[in-house]
Amino acid sequence: MRLVVGSTLSGVYDAALDKGLSLKGPLTWRDAACGLRLPAHVVDRYRDKSSLSIWRWPIPDGAYELLKDGSRICTPEFTYLLMARLLSDEELALFGLEICGTYAIDKKDKKGFVSGTTPQTNVKRLEAFLGGCSGAPGSVRAKRVLRWVVDKSASPMESMLVLLLCLPRRMGGFGLPMPELNVSVNELRGLRDVDRGPFVDLLWRLARFSLEYDSDLEHTGKDRISRDSIRRVLLEELKIRSFSVTSEQVNDSVELARIARITSKALGVKYHSVGLELRRRNASLRQRLYEFTRCDEQQ
């Protein structure tokens, strides 16, 4: 099966037409194709790569969906597996957080991304799909990296903060346990309306500890300030300690190490001292994550 890549459905159709391939018809890797929709920032970054052009392994169950016109489009779960053949571990984790999150990279937006999008998939669906793909190209890496993917990230910077704190030290992170993301305070209070705010950005539920990412763009204005104040009061009522993290702290390995130390103590996990080498790896990891998302450092 051949894979035709585009950032939009029309882009996929155009690419198939240019290559003389059909997204319909017999499903053989020699003469048929399946459309692969990737975020524009991924298509742009890897435009010259050809490693995804053909899939010669047996086609996994749930690998594609049929559109109304009969065209085949890769599911988000199959897309994640395919990207495991192309991306580095940290890039694949960031990609996973994006497709399981509620944002989409869009350089036309002033923030560099669009908020409030519907998640393309979730961690449980990815786990179930990969469970049926043992031995497939990229499956070992895809399963390993999934440990650093969590649902409901609301922005590229939230995703980056999670990875900077939670990836292993050998990769430049601080090795912290993974948090839940954007948990409704109503859920924590035992109320039914869990789809309404306020929400907790990064939550370690058992430790009753949270971090809030204070975006330069999002945490301004009277209404936003009021919502943040209400959330702090509710968290205090629930006896959940909460600290704010700014973009300046995310961009400073020394400050981020201080946040990691506070979080480690709150979680009751051992914190290893941070030397110059880890700060260097952390700075390098941050740069690679920024480059992958083309994220504005002042979000």
Structure description:
β5 (103-105) and β6 (113-115) form a beta hairpin. The strands form four sheets. This protein has a four-stranded mixed beta sheet, with helices on both faces. The longest helix is centred in the last third of the chain and has 18 residues, at 276-293. The protein contains twelve helices and ten strands. The mean pLDDT is 90. It is globular and about 60 Å long. The protein has 299 residues and is α/β, with parallel strands linked by helices. The two termini are 40 Å apart. It has helices spanning 9-18, 40-45, 76-83, 89-99, 123-131, 139-145, 156-166, 185-188, 222-237, 247-250, 253-267, 276-293, and strands spanning 2-6, 33-37, 64-66, 72-74, 103-105, 113-115, 180-184, 199-204, 209-214, 241-246.
In short:
This protein is α/β, with parallel strands linked by helices and 299 residues long.
Strand content: 15-25%
Gap between N and C termini, in Å?
A: 40 Å
Secondary-structure-based class equals: alpha/beta
The sequence of SSEs as H and E is EHEHEEHHEEHHHEHEEHEHHH
Residues in helices, as a percent range: 25-40%
Weakly predicted, low-confidence segments: none
Mean pLDDT: 90
Assembly state: single chain
